[in-house]
């Protein structure tokens, strides 16, 4: 997807990635490559089409969220499908684990 202006990221070019329906071990390495290509830019991940999620792909997404947090750049997962959310819950995670950047930045501003 093309970069677009997002008012939440203070007008910076928000980059968007659409996750594929199957996020298994075969999808983990290509996903990591796609994420690395956007390093340094605000990034939104559309998880609306995800039907199946493997732990390796979740690890890639968690590592990316930590990298963006370290860089103090906006990283978010949007429109998470029910199967994506159920997979996260099954391995003991929630959407909050990916969005701690936003919460941490809000805390630092106070």
TrEMBL record:
Classification via InterPro entries: MlaB-like_STAS (IPR058548), STAS_dom_sf (IPR036513)
Organism expressing this protein natively: Fulvimarina uroteuthidis
Domain of life according to the entry: Bacteria
MlaB-like STAS domain sequence ranges: 17-93
Pfam families: STAS_2
Identification of the protein by name: STAS domain-containing protein
Gene3D superfamilies referenced in this protein's UniProt entry, alphabetically: STAS domain
């Amino acid at each position: 997807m093309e970069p677009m202006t997002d008012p939440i990221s203070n007008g910076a070019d928000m980059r968007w990635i659409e996750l594929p329906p199957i996020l298994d071990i075969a999808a983990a390495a290509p996903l990591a490559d796609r994420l690395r290509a956007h390093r340094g830019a605000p990034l939104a991940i559309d998880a609306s089409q995800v039907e199946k999620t493997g732990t390796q792909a979740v690890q890639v997404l968690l590592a990316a969220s930590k990298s963006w947090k370290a860089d103090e750049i906006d990283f978010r997962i949007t429109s998470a499908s029910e199967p994506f959310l159920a997979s996260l819950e099954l391995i003991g995670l929630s959407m909050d684990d990916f969005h701690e950047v936003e919460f941490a930045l809000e805390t630092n501003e106070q």
